Prior knowledge:
heterodimer, A: alpha+beta, Helix Hairpins, HSP40/DNAj peptide-binding domain, 3 domains, three-stranded mixed sheet, 11 strands, B: Multidrug-efflux Transporter Regulator, Chain: A, Domain 2
Amino acid sequence: xxxxxxxxxxxxxxxxxxxxxxxxxxxxxxxxxxxxxxxxxxxxxxxxxxxxxxxxxxxxxxxxxxxxxxxxxxxxxxxxxxxxxxxxxxxxxxxxxxxxxxxxxxxxxxxxxxxxxxxxxxxxxxxxxxxxxxxxxxxxxxxxxxxxxxxxxxxxxxxxxxxxxxxxxxxxxxxxxxxxxxxxxxxxxxxxxxxxxxxxxxxxxxxxxxxxxxxxxxxxxxxxxxxxxxxxxxxxxxxxxxxxxxxxxxxxxxxxxxxxxxxxxxxxxxxxxxxxxxxxxxxxxxxxxxxxxxxxxxxxxxxxxxxxxxxxxxxxxxxx
Amino acid sequence: xxxxxxxxxxxxxxxxxxxxxxxxxxxxxxxxxxxxxxxxxxxxxxxxxxxxxxxxxxxxxxxxxxxxxxxxxxxxxxxxxxxxxxxxxxxxxxxxxxxxxxxxxxx
Lengths: 320, 107
Protein backbone atom coordinates (compact mmCIF):
# COMPACT_ATOMS: atom_id res chain seq x y z
CA UNK A 1 0.00 0.00 0.00
CA UNK A 2 1.34 3.43 -0.94
CA UNK A 3 1.34 6.29 1.54
CA UNK A 4 -0.47 9.57 0.85
CA UNK A 5 0.13 12.64 2.98
CA UNK A 6 -3.43 13.88 3.48
CA UNK A 7 -2.28 16.90 5.49
CA UNK A 8 0.15 18.02 2.77
CA UNK A 9 -2.55 17.52 0.10
CA UNK A 10 -4.74 20.01 1.99
CA UNK A 11 -1.74 22.27 2.67
CA UNK A 12 -2.02 21.74 6.43
CA UNK A 13 0.12 20.88 9.44
CA UNK A 14 -0.69 17.71 11.39
CA UNK A 15 -1.89 19.91 14.24
CA UNK A 16 -4.63 21.53 12.10
CA UNK A 17 -7.98 22.02 13.78
CA UNK A 18 -11.25 20.67 12.38
CA UNK A 19 -12.17 24.20 11.24
CA UNK A 20 -8.83 24.60 9.45
CA UNK A 21 -9.36 21.25 7.70
CA UNK A 22 -12.81 22.31 6.56
CA UNK A 23 -11.60 25.74 5.37
CA UNK A 24 -8.67 24.21 3.44
CA UNK A 25 -10.98 21.67 1.80
CA UNK A 26 -13.51 24.33 0.78
CA UNK A 27 -10.82 26.51 -0.75
CA UNK A 28 -9.33 23.64 -2.76
CA UNK A 29 -12.76 22.22 -3.68
CA UNK A 30 -13.73 25.58 -5.20
CA UNK A 31 -10.49 25.51 -7.19
CA UNK A 32 -10.59 21.91 -8.41
CA UNK A 33 -14.21 20.70 -8.36
CA UNK A 34 -14.70 19.12 -11.80
CA UNK A 35 -18.12 20.73 -12.21
CA UNK A 36 -16.74 24.25 -11.85
CA UNK A 37 -13.00 24.09 -12.56
CA UNK A 38 -11.08 24.50 -15.78
CA UNK A 39 -7.74 23.74 -14.09
CA UNK A 40 -5.60 21.09 -15.73
CA UNK A 41 -6.10 17.68 -14.06
CA UNK A 42 -8.85 19.23 -11.92
CA UNK A 43 -10.72 15.94 -11.57
CA UNK A 44 -7.68 14.02 -10.32
CA UNK A 45 -6.72 16.85 -7.96
CA UNK A 46 -10.26 17.14 -6.58
CA UNK A 47 -10.35 13.38 -6.02
CA UNK A 48 -7.14 13.64 -4.01
CA UNK A 49 -8.42 16.63 -2.00
CA UNK A 50 -11.80 14.98 -1.39
CA UNK A 51 -10.16 11.72 -0.30
CA UNK A 52 -7.96 13.60 2.18
CA UNK A 53 -10.95 15.54 3.53
CA UNK A 54 -13.20 12.48 3.86
CA UNK A 55 -10.60 10.95 6.16
CA UNK A 56 -9.44 13.99 8.13
CA UNK A 57 -12.91 15.46 8.79
CA UNK A 58 -13.93 12.31 10.64
CA UNK A 59 -12.22 12.26 14.04
CA UNK A 60 -12.12 8.44 14.21
CA UNK A 61 -10.64 8.11 10.75
CA UNK A 62 -8.21 10.94 11.39
CA UNK A 63 -6.98 9.17 14.53
CA UNK A 64 -6.62 5.94 12.55
CA UNK A 65 -4.74 7.78 9.81
CA UNK A 66 -2.42 9.50 12.29
CA UNK A 67 -1.60 6.12 13.83
CA UNK A 68 -0.39 4.78 10.50
CA UNK A 69 2.83 6.75 11.01
CA UNK A 70 4.65 9.11 8.67
CA UNK A 71 6.18 8.11 5.37
CA UNK A 72 7.16 9.78 2.14
CA UNK A 73 4.26 10.26 -0.30
CA UNK A 74 4.17 7.25 -2.62
CA UNK A 75 6.29 5.13 -0.28
CA UNK A 76 5.20 1.50 0.22
CA UNK A 77 4.20 0.81 3.80
CA UNK A 78 2.16 -1.44 6.02
CA UNK A 79 0.20 -0.25 9.06
CA UNK A 80 1.81 -0.97 12.46
CA UNK A 81 1.06 -4.50 13.81
CA UNK A 82 -1.57 -3.40 16.33
CA UNK A 83 -3.24 -0.89 14.01
CA UNK A 84 -5.83 -3.29 12.63
CA UNK A 85 -6.87 -4.46 16.10
CA UNK A 86 -7.65 -0.88 17.03
CA UNK A 87 -9.23 0.39 13.84
CA UNK A 88 -10.19 -2.51 11.55
CA UNK A 89 -13.52 -4.28 12.01
CA UNK A 90 -12.29 -7.50 10.52
CA UNK A 91 -9.18 -9.01 9.06
CA UNK A 92 -8.24 -7.95 5.55
CA UNK A 93 -5.14 -8.03 3.46
CA UNK A 94 -3.35 -4.75 2.81
CA UNK A 95 -1.71 -6.07 -0.33
CA UNK A 96 -4.37 -5.06 -2.86
CA UNK A 97 -5.58 -1.98 -1.01
CA UNK A 98 -5.25 1.65 -1.92
CA UNK A 99 -5.12 4.02 1.05
CA UNK A 100 -8.44 5.55 -0.02
CA UNK A 101 -9.97 2.06 -0.15
CA UNK A 102 -8.68 1.36 3.34
CA UNK A 103 -10.46 4.39 4.78
CA UNK A 104 -13.50 3.86 2.59
CA UNK A 105 -13.54 0.37 4.07
CA UNK A 106 -13.60 1.76 7.59
CA UNK A 107 -16.73 3.64 6.61
CA UNK A 108 -17.98 1.02 4.17
CA UNK A 109 -17.41 -1.79 6.64
CA UNK A 110 -19.72 -0.08 9.05
CA UNK A 111 -22.35 1.37 6.78
CA UNK A 112 -22.65 -1.19 4.04
CA UNK A 113 -22.50 -4.61 5.53
CA UNK A 114 -20.26 -4.66 8.55
CA UNK A 115 -21.19 -5.39 12.14
CA UNK A 116 -23.99 -3.21 13.41
CA UNK A 117 -24.93 -1.99 9.94
CA UNK A 118 -28.59 -1.72 9.05
CA UNK A 119 -29.22 -4.21 6.29
CA UNK A 120 -31.34 -2.00 4.09
CA UNK A 121 -31.10 -2.15 0.31
CA UNK A 122 -28.38 0.10 -1.09
CA UNK A 123 -27.97 1.01 -4.70
CA UNK A 124 -24.53 0.38 -6.18
CA UNK A 125 -22.14 3.23 -6.88
CA UNK A 126 -22.39 5.05 -10.22
CA UNK A 127 -19.23 5.29 -12.31
CA UNK A 128 -18.53 8.20 -14.61
CA UNK A 129 -15.94 8.06 -17.34
CA UNK A 130 -14.83 10.18 -20.28
CA UNK A 131 -15.01 8.46 -23.67
CA UNK A 132 -12.91 10.10 -26.38
CA UNK A 133 -14.22 9.49 -29.87
CA UNK A 134 -13.04 10.62 -33.26
CA UNK A 135 -15.15 12.60 -35.68
CA UNK A 136 -15.45 9.51 -37.85
CA UNK A 137 -16.77 7.53 -34.86
CA UNK A 138 -19.30 10.29 -34.15
CA UNK A 139 -20.37 10.14 -37.79
CA UNK A 140 -20.69 6.37 -38.11
CA UNK A 141 -21.20 5.26 -34.51
CA UNK A 142 -18.60 3.16 -32.75
CA UNK A 143 -17.85 0.49 -30.22
CA UNK A 144 -15.46 1.76 -27.57
CA UNK A 145 -13.63 -0.17 -24.91
CA UNK A 146 -13.23 1.44 -21.53
CA UNK A 147 -10.85 0.30 -18.81
CA UNK A 148 -11.63 1.50 -15.30
CA UNK A 149 -10.07 1.01 -11.92
CA UNK A 150 -12.99 1.04 -9.50
CA UNK A 151 -13.60 0.18 -5.86
CA UNK A 152 -15.64 -2.99 -5.44
CA UNK A 153 -16.98 -4.14 -2.12
CA UNK A 154 -16.61 -7.68 -0.84
CA UNK A 155 -19.27 -9.50 1.20
CA UNK A 156 -18.09 -7.81 4.40
CA UNK A 157 -18.49 -4.42 2.71
CA UNK A 158 -14.77 -3.72 2.37
CA UNK A 159 -13.50 -1.95 -0.70
CA UNK A 160 -10.92 -3.40 -3.05
CA UNK A 161 -9.73 -1.68 -6.19
CA UNK A 162 -10.38 -3.83 -9.25
CA UNK A 163 -9.87 -3.36 -12.97
CA UNK A 164 -13.05 -3.56 -15.01
CA UNK A 165 -13.43 -3.36 -18.76
CA UNK A 166 -16.54 -2.29 -20.61
CA UNK A 167 -17.45 -2.24 -24.25
CA UNK A 168 -20.14 0.25 -25.22
CA UNK A 169 -21.89 0.98 -28.47
CA UNK A 170 -21.76 4.74 -29.05
CA UNK A 171 -24.65 5.49 -31.39
CA UNK A 172 -24.08 7.84 -34.29
CA UNK A 173 -25.18 11.33 -33.41
CA UNK A 174 -23.32 11.50 -30.10
CA UNK A 175 -21.25 14.64 -30.12
CA UNK A 176 -19.02 16.66 -27.82
CA UNK A 177 -20.44 17.01 -24.30
CA UNK A 178 -23.14 14.37 -24.81
CA UNK A 179 -23.86 12.29 -21.72
CA UNK A 180 -24.90 8.67 -22.15
CA UNK A 181 -26.00 6.19 -19.51
CA UNK A 182 -25.38 2.45 -19.37
CA UNK A 183 -27.83 1.06 -16.83
CA UNK A 184 -26.56 -1.54 -14.39
CA UNK A 185 -22.86 -1.26 -15.27
CA UNK A 186 -21.84 0.61 -12.13
CA UNK A 187 -20.99 -0.89 -8.75
CA UNK A 188 -22.86 -3.82 -7.23
CA UNK A 189 -25.91 -3.11 -5.09
CA UNK A 190 -26.14 -4.29 -1.46
CA UNK A 191 -28.87 -6.16 0.36
CA UNK A 192 -31.01 -6.42 -2.74
CA UNK A 193 -30.27 -2.88 -3.96
CA UNK A 194 -29.89 -2.50 -7.70
CA UNK A 195 -26.61 -2.04 -9.51
CA UNK A 196 -25.28 1.45 -10.14
CA UNK A 197 -24.97 2.88 -13.64
CA UNK A 198 -22.05 3.82 -15.83
CA UNK A 199 -22.16 7.33 -17.29
CA UNK A 200 -20.17 8.27 -20.36
CA UNK A 201 -19.12 11.82 -21.02
CA UNK A 202 -18.39 12.05 -24.74
CA UNK A 203 -15.41 14.13 -25.79
CA UNK A 204 -14.84 14.63 -29.49
CA UNK A 205 -11.17 14.64 -30.45
CA UNK A 206 -10.04 17.58 -32.59
CA UNK A 207 -9.94 16.89 -36.33
CA UNK A 208 -7.22 18.30 -38.58
CA UNK A 209 -9.77 19.63 -41.12
CA UNK A 210 -13.20 19.91 -39.53
CA UNK A 211 -14.29 22.10 -36.62
CA UNK A 212 -17.46 21.12 -34.80
CA UNK A 213 -20.33 23.18 -33.44
CA UNK A 214 -23.15 20.95 -32.24
CA UNK A 215 -23.86 18.77 -35.26
CA UNK A 216 -22.63 21.34 -37.81
CA UNK A 217 -19.14 21.15 -39.25
CA UNK A 218 -16.88 23.91 -40.54
CA UNK A 219 -13.98 23.52 -42.91
CA UNK A 220 -11.65 26.17 -44.35
CA UNK A 221 -11.75 26.29 -48.16
CA UNK A 222 -8.67 28.01 -49.60
CA UNK A 223 -9.18 29.34 -53.13
CA UNK A 224 -6.69 30.89 -55.53
CA UNK A 225 -7.64 34.51 -56.41
CA UNK A 226 -8.61 33.55 -59.95
CA UNK A 227 -10.80 30.66 -58.67
CA UNK A 228 -12.68 33.11 -56.44
CA UNK A 229 -13.14 35.60 -59.28
CA UNK A 230 -14.03 33.18 -62.06
CA UNK A 231 -15.76 30.47 -60.01
CA UNK A 232 -14.71 26.83 -60.00
CA UNK A 233 -15.58 23.33 -58.90
CA UNK A 234 -13.60 21.80 -56.07
CA UNK A 235 -13.52 18.40 -54.48
CA UNK A 236 -14.36 18.93 -50.83
CA UNK A 237 -13.75 16.32 -48.11
CA UNK A 238 -16.79 15.50 -45.94
CA UNK A 239 -17.12 12.85 -43.21
CA UNK A 240 -19.17 10.76 -45.66
CA UNK A 241 -16.60 11.03 -48.46
CA UNK A 242 -15.56 13.72 -50.95
CA UNK A 243 -18.19 15.76 -52.79
CA UNK A 244 -18.02 18.21 -55.69
CA UNK A 245 -18.70 21.78 -54.60
CA UNK A 246 -19.54 24.50 -57.09
CA UNK A 247 -17.91 27.78 -56.11
CA UNK A 248 -19.79 30.66 -57.77
CA UNK A 249 -17.93 33.42 -59.56
CA UNK A 250 -17.25 36.44 -57.35
CA UNK A 251 -16.89 34.43 -54.15
CA UNK A 252 -15.17 36.48 -51.44
CA UNK A 253 -13.05 35.63 -48.41
CA UNK A 254 -15.01 34.73 -45.29
CA UNK A 255 -18.08 33.62 -47.26
CA UNK A 256 -19.78 30.49 -45.88
CA UNK A 257 -20.77 27.97 -48.54
CA UNK A 258 -23.38 25.65 -47.01
CA UNK A 259 -23.63 21.98 -47.84
CA UNK A 260 -26.93 20.89 -46.31
CA UNK A 261 -27.02 17.62 -44.35
CA UNK A 262 -23.30 16.95 -44.79
CA UNK A 263 -22.54 17.49 -41.10
CA UNK A 264 -22.80 15.03 -38.21
CA UNK A 265 -25.93 12.92 -37.76
CA UNK A 266 -28.30 13.96 -34.98
CA UNK A 267 -29.80 11.52 -32.48
CA UNK A 268 -33.24 11.86 -34.08
CA UNK A 269 -32.08 10.73 -37.52
CA UNK A 270 -31.39 14.14 -39.06
CA UNK A 271 -28.06 15.63 -40.07
CA UNK A 272 -26.24 18.84 -39.36
CA UNK A 273 -24.81 20.99 -42.14
CA UNK A 274 -21.27 21.42 -43.41
CA UNK A 275 -20.02 24.96 -44.01
CA UNK A 276 -17.00 25.66 -46.20
CA UNK A 277 -15.45 28.99 -45.18
CA UNK A 278 -13.70 30.64 -48.09
CA UNK A 279 -10.13 31.84 -47.71
CA UNK A 280 -8.25 33.53 -50.53
CA UNK A 281 -4.82 31.96 -50.69
CA UNK A 282 -2.00 33.90 -52.33
CA UNK A 283 1.03 32.12 -53.77
CA UNK A 284 4.22 33.00 -51.91
CA UNK A 285 6.46 32.15 -54.86
CA UNK A 286 5.51 33.36 -58.37
CA UNK A 287 7.35 32.75 -61.59
CA UNK A 288 8.29 35.63 -63.88
CA UNK A 289 5.50 34.85 -66.44
CA UNK A 290 2.96 34.80 -63.58
CA UNK A 291 4.30 38.11 -62.26
CA UNK A 292 3.91 39.59 -65.72
CA UNK A 293 0.29 38.45 -65.84
CA UNK A 294 -0.41 40.00 -62.41
CA UNK A 295 1.13 43.28 -63.61
CA UNK A 296 -1.03 43.19 -66.70
CA UNK A 297 -4.10 42.52 -64.51
CA UNK A 298 -3.18 45.43 -62.24
CA UNK A 299 -2.91 47.76 -65.24
CA UNK A 300 -6.29 46.75 -66.65
CA UNK A 301 -8.34 46.33 -63.50
CA UNK A 302 -10.50 49.16 -62.14
CA UNK A 303 -11.26 47.21 -58.98
CA UNK A 304 -10.54 49.19 -55.80
CA UNK A 305 -10.82 46.96 -52.69
CA UNK A 306 -10.45 50.09 -50.48
CA UNK A 307 -13.11 52.27 -52.06
CA UNK A 308 -14.91 52.57 -48.71
CA UNK A 309 -11.71 54.10 -47.22
CA UNK A 310 -11.96 56.97 -49.70
CA UNK A 311 -15.62 57.60 -48.84
CA UNK A 312 -14.86 57.63 -45.12
CA UNK A 313 -11.82 59.91 -45.55
CA UNK A 314 -13.72 62.44 -47.68
CA UNK A 315 -16.50 62.49 -45.05
CA UNK A 316 -13.86 63.11 -42.33
CA UNK A 317 -12.32 65.95 -44.35
CA UNK A 318 -15.76 67.63 -44.79
CA UNK A 319 -16.47 67.55 -41.04
CA UNK A 320 -13.05 68.98 -40.00
CA UNK B 1 -11.94 -12.63 -21.74
CA UNK B 2 -14.93 -11.66 -23.84
CA UNK B 3 -16.43 -8.32 -22.85
CA UNK B 4 -20.15 -7.97 -23.33
CA UNK B 5 -21.23 -5.06 -25.50
CA UNK B 6 -23.49 -2.62 -23.66
CA UNK B 7 -26.16 -0.47 -25.22
CA UNK B 8 -26.35 3.13 -24.06
CA UNK B 9 -29.33 5.29 -23.14
CA UNK B 10 -29.47 8.86 -24.40
CA UNK B 11 -29.96 11.54 -21.78
CA UNK B 12 -31.86 14.04 -23.86
CA UNK B 13 -35.19 15.80 -24.19
CA UNK B 14 -36.81 12.82 -25.91
CA UNK B 15 -36.59 10.45 -22.93
CA UNK B 16 -38.74 10.83 -19.85
CA UNK B 17 -38.14 9.93 -16.24
CA UNK B 18 -40.62 9.92 -13.38
CA UNK B 19 -39.81 11.92 -10.27
CA UNK B 20 -39.00 8.68 -8.41
CA UNK B 21 -36.63 7.56 -11.19
CA UNK B 22 -34.95 10.96 -11.28
CA UNK B 23 -34.47 10.79 -7.50
CA UNK B 24 -33.13 7.24 -7.55
CA UNK B 25 -30.70 7.84 -10.39
CA UNK B 26 -29.44 11.24 -9.26
CA UNK B 27 -29.07 10.62 -5.53
CA UNK B 28 -31.26 13.61 -4.64
CA UNK B 29 -34.43 13.10 -2.63
CA UNK B 30 -37.86 13.76 -4.14
CA UNK B 31 -38.22 16.67 -1.68
CA UNK B 32 -34.95 18.20 -2.94
CA UNK B 33 -36.10 17.77 -6.53
CA UNK B 34 -39.38 19.52 -5.66
CA UNK B 35 -37.35 22.38 -4.14
CA UNK B 36 -35.25 22.61 -7.32
CA UNK B 37 -38.51 22.68 -9.26
CA UNK B 38 -39.78 25.53 -7.05
CA UNK B 39 -36.51 27.42 -7.77
CA UNK B 40 -37.02 26.90 -11.51
CA UNK B 41 -33.91 24.75 -11.94
CA UNK B 42 -35.94 21.81 -13.30
CA UNK B 43 -39.42 21.67 -14.77
CA UNK B 44 -41.80 18.76 -15.40
CA UNK B 45 -42.86 18.07 -18.97
CA UNK B 46 -46.51 18.71 -18.09
CA UNK B 47 -46.99 20.51 -14.76
CA UNK B 48 -50.69 19.64 -14.79
CA UNK B 49 -50.20 15.91 -15.31
CA UNK B 50 -51.16 13.60 -12.43
CA UNK B 51 -47.82 11.79 -12.49
CA UNK B 52 -45.04 14.22 -13.17
CA UNK B 53 -42.39 13.22 -15.67
CA UNK B 54 -39.15 15.01 -16.48
CA UNK B 55 -36.99 15.15 -19.55
CA UNK B 56 -34.01 12.78 -19.13
CA UNK B 57 -31.54 15.61 -19.73
CA UNK B 58 -32.42 16.83 -16.21
CA UNK B 59 -30.65 13.73 -14.91
CA UNK B 60 -27.30 15.32 -15.87
CA UNK B 61 -28.28 18.49 -13.99
CA UNK B 62 -29.63 16.57 -10.99
CA UNK B 63 -26.45 14.49 -10.72
CA UNK B 64 -24.39 17.68 -10.83
CA UNK B 65 -26.65 19.11 -8.11
CA UNK B 66 -26.10 16.01 -5.99
CA UNK B 67 -22.31 16.28 -6.33
CA UNK B 68 -22.35 20.00 -5.50
CA UNK B 69 -24.62 19.38 -2.51
CA UNK B 70 -22.32 16.67 -1.17
CA UNK B 71 -18.99 18.33 -1.93
CA UNK B 72 -19.86 21.92 -0.92
CA UNK B 73 -22.65 21.21 1.59
CA UNK B 74 -24.95 23.58 -0.33
CA UNK B 75 -28.61 24.08 0.51
CA UNK B 76 -31.21 24.01 -2.26
CA UNK B 77 -31.19 27.79 -2.81
CA UNK B 78 -27.39 27.72 -3.15
CA UNK B 79 -27.68 24.74 -5.48
CA UNK B 80 -30.21 26.54 -7.68
CA UNK B 81 -27.91 29.58 -7.99
CA UNK B 82 -24.86 27.39 -8.72
CA UNK B 83 -26.80 25.40 -11.34
CA UNK B 84 -28.08 28.58 -13.01
CA UNK B 85 -24.54 29.98 -13.18
CA UNK B 86 -23.14 26.68 -14.50
CA UNK B 87 -25.87 26.68 -17.13
CA UNK B 88 -24.86 30.20 -18.20
CA UNK B 89 -21.19 29.19 -18.32
CA UNK B 90 -22.05 26.17 -20.50
CA UNK B 91 -24.19 28.30 -22.83
CA UNK B 92 -21.33 30.82 -23.17
CA UNK B 93 -18.82 28.02 -23.77
CA UNK B 94 -21.09 26.60 -26.47
CA UNK B 95 -21.32 30.05 -28.06
CA UNK B 96 -17.54 30.43 -27.92
CA UNK B 97 -17.09 26.96 -29.45
CA UNK B 98 -19.50 27.93 -32.21
CA UNK B 99 -17.66 31.20 -32.85
CA UNK B 100 -14.31 29.42 -32.95
CA UNK B 101 -15.69 26.90 -35.42
CA UNK B 102 -16.93 29.72 -37.66
CA UNK B 103 -13.97 32.03 -37.09
CA UNK B 104 -10.75 30.05 -36.51
CA UNK B 105 -8.81 33.33 -36.32
CA UNK B 106 -10.49 33.94 -32.95
CA UNK B 107 -8.33 31.05 -31.67
